[in-house]
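Example 4.3 (complexes with small molecules)
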Amino acid sequence: MPLGSPLPEGRHSTSARITMIIKSNLPYYIYRAANTLYRWRIPVLPYLIQQFLRFGFCCFIPYKTQIGRKNIHFGHNGLGVVLDYRCVIGENVRIDQEVTIGIRWDEKTAPIIGNNVRIGAGAKVLGSIRVGNNARIGANAVVLTDVPDGATAVGVPARIIHKRELSLVDDGERE
Ligand SMILES: CC(C)(COP(=O)(O)OP(=O)(O)OC[C@H]1O[C@@H](n2cnc3c(N)ncnc32)[C@H](O)[C@@H]1OP(=O)(O)O)[C@@H](O)C(=O)NCCC(=O)NCCS
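Answer. The structure with coenzyme A bound is encoded below.
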C-alpha cells in the first residue's frame, strides 16, 4: 500500500495498533512483568510492581494470579478491577472496569474463568465456580454458580438468559 494512503475502514497502522495495545492493556503487561519475576523467584520486586498497579491504575491484580497469555483486555485500564490471587483466567478474556473475581467468605477457592469470556462492568464473580468458555457475564451481575459454556448470565444473583450453540467456526472467529 503506498505511503500516506488511507487505510481501509477498521484497519490501523502498525504504530497506531501498538499504541492502542499499550494504552488499553498496560495493566496487563505490568502484571505480566510482575508474574514473570515471581516465577523466576525474584523477591520483593513483584510485590512492588503489584503495588504500583494498585496506586497507578486503581486495580488490584496480584502477581500470583494465573492469567492467560493471549488477548487479555482490561476495560478502561482495569479501573476498579479486583482479582483474588487464587482465581484462574483463560485466554482471550475481556474484563471491564469495577469487576471483582474472588472468594466467598466461607470458602477458600476462587473462580476459574474459561477462554473467550467477557465480563461486563461491575460484575462480581465469587466462589468455587467455573465460568465456561465463550460465556458472557452482564454488567453488575453477581455470579455465584457455574456458568455453562456459551451462556450469558445477568442479574443478582445471576441467572442464565441465553445459551448459544457453539461450533468450531464460532470458536475460530473469536481467535
Ligand atoms: C449481558 C449482556 C451482554 C446481554 O446482552 P444481550 O444478549 O443483547 O441481552 P438483551 O439485551 O437481549 O437482554 C436479555 C434480557 O436480559 C436483561 N439484561 C441484559 N443485561 C442485563 C444486565 N446487565 N443486568 C440485568 N439484566 C440484564 C434484559 O433486560 C433482558 O431482560 P427481559 O428478557 O426480561 O427483557 C449485556 O446486557 C451487558 O450487560 N453487557 C455488558 C456491557 C458492559 O459492561 N459494558 C461496559 C462498557 S464500558
